Amino acid sequence: MFSPSFVELHPGMPVHKGMDCYNFAATIPRSPLPGMVLPKRTTFHLYWRSDKLALSRRQVSLIHSILAMQDRETSDVTLWTNPAPAVEGQVRDSPLLRDSTLLTDFHKMYGPQRFQVKAVHWKTLAMGTPLEDYQGLEGVEGRVGVEKDLVRVLVLWTKGGIWVDMDTIMTGRDWRVLTEHEWVVQSDCHDKAQNALSGTMMHFNKNSAYLCEMMRLMSLAPEIPPSGSSDWSSHLYHKVYVRLLESNIAPFKILPFCFVDGYSCDKDNRLPDFFSVTEYAWGEDGPGAQLKKKVESVWAVHLHNQWGKQFSKTGWAKSLILDKIKHAVDAYRIG
Questions:
Q1: Dist. CA 240–CA 299, nearest whole Å
Q2: What CA–CA distance (Å, rounded) separates 79 from 77?
Q3: Residues 185 and 257 sit within 8 Å (Cβ to Cβ)
């Protein structure tokens, strides 16, 4: 069933030069318009393996950047994580479920209605899907990249909402205006064959037919892809997109690269290094003004892992994004 859409997510021509992508992003309303048909509630899904790397300020900032800056009445976060090693006769809860310091702080501030931590149980999530009887399903656990690719699809099929990779930070723009449509994101501004689409962020409705087709193709794989493979991510999304067109079926949308990943373009028009300590003058003209316009136009910044780096105490990202998150969190605490 389709309803009229107020927001057009496809610019109709390449927007990889100059300010084109950011200018197009700025045409989208800052908040929902009367008459928009939107989900009653949007869950942002994250995934973090607690046995690989401890949560740090970066991950905490991402969670705050969603919960403190998105609409309180219609948004929430579920942090998915790996279950603990299997012990006969015991429920396989996650170590994160026992991290009382983290959970107490978030639950106290946002409440269990807006923040939850859940362990991934493959067979439960795959129940009733084309992957239900897939041999070796639980063998995906621990395979770098591929594990997350599978979680994305299963979680969105089961719950619906917006998937967010943990190496991301939000700018504060209202995500509701993008939820008329189901979508993935453009990998970068270069339109690389077979790798043009990314699951860094993606939005699909619960039990989406698009996700069902993705899982059907995944179930045909003779074995789970190796670590680092794109078979269940960019290659999969591209394959499904093309198959839909071949079948004369309207495909899911593709967000232009800068909406989520303004760094992935040419040096002359991409966002600067997020971890840079370079300061800018925020006047009406010049590089600082242009950078400010870019950041205010987009919804998120993808940090491309770089887990060894922590946020700088100076620089453009602090001025335009991190301070904004801090102020939103402080205001939320006050109520």
A1: 25
A2: 6
A3: yes
Letter for the amino acid at 155? V
Burial call 270-279: b when 16+ CB within 10 Å, e when fewer: bbbbbeeeee
Q: How many whole angstroms separate alpha carbon 131 and alpha carbon 299?
A: 32
Whether the CB-CB separation of 53 and 307 falls below 8 Å is answered with: yes
Contact between 68 and 109 under an 8 Å Cβ cutoff? The reply is no
Sign of the four-CA dihedral 261, 174, 50, 211: negative
Category of 317 on φ-ψ map: left (φ > 0), alpha (ψ -120 to 50) or beta: alpha
User: Tokens at residue 250, please?
Assistant: 């309207």
Instruction: Give counts: helices (H), strands (E), the chain.
Output: 11, 9
For residues 72 and 56, the answer to whether their CB atoms sit within 8 Å is no
Other C-beta atoms closer than 10 Å to the C-beta of 309 total: 12
Looking at the whole model, is its pTM more than 0.90? Answer: yes
Six-digit token string for 190: 């270069």
Element (H, E) at 190: none
Least confident residue range of 27-31, 128-132, 225-229, 323-327: 225-229
Say which DSSP state 238 is in: H
Average model confidence (pLDDT) for the chain?
90
Q: What is the DSSP string of 85-143?
A: PP-TTS----GGGG-HHHHHHHHHHH-TTTEEEEE--HHHHHTTSTTTT-TTGGGGTT-
Would you state the pLDDT for residue 335? 79
Question: For residue 238, how many other CB atoms are within 10 A of its CB?
Answer: 19
DSSP alpha helices (H): ranges in the chain?
20-26, 57-67, 100-110, 122-126, 146-159, 209-219, 234-246, 258-261, 287-297, 316-317, 323-334
